[in-house]
Write a structure and sequence with these properties.
heterodimer; A: 99 residues; alpha+beta; two-stranded antiparallel sheet; globular; B: four-stranded mixed beta sheet; four-stranded antiparallel beta sheet; 3 helices; 34% strand
Amino acid sequence: MGGAGPLRAIPCSDTVKVTVLYFARSAELAGLRTETISVPQQITSLQLWREIVKRHSRLADIEDQVVFAICQEYVPLGDQQFILHTGDEVAIIPPLSGG
Amino acid sequence: MSENEDKPKDAIGLKYEKLSLEEVAALVISPCCGAASFFVGTTRNNSEGRKVIQLEYEAYTAMAEAEMKKICTDIRLKWPSVKHIAIHHRLGLVPISEASVIVAISSPHRADSLKALQYCINTLKATVPIWKKEIYEEESSWKENKECFWFKGEK
């Protein structure tokens, strides 16, 4: 123990406040349209989804039907990692039905 | 007006009031074009055998406008002769038989505006964040476009 060991990677513990927007069925299940939440700055889209489901467990029903729009770009739930910034907009996007 | 004076325009609108075909026509008709093509999507009184009373639309407005602009950009790359593009989509409650979407595109000759029109409405259904809820007599359901790229139902 102690001594000059190799530097250990310190897990990134910075958190940021992002605005989550809920639409269509996701808004009905969450019971709200927008909220601000604190999440780790560095996060995968799937981890971000799990953070949101922790707050609104009914959203678990539509996990296989939604994608995110992070800063207005579509992102499927998965292992892709993001660096988020305070004020970023994260939208829950159920299947589209415009037209 | 010479051809040069009528600069190509993209007119995009998300509206809570009734859509006007006349207004959209005025946005695209051009003295240098021999074709203006229109698509009007209207709300239907039935869906999968159920009676629909009315429909309700909502949008992620800022992103929907951005995605519609992307479609306009793509159309101009694919069909450079296209002159004006107008896309109006209605939001909120829409009674049966009223227009939920109007797309209009002008070009010097009809082939390009017709092809661009079909591309425009198909891509809108696939990429623009707008949602439609069908309201029946006693309940309602959110619809899903088969064009939506993560749609998992029957195509």
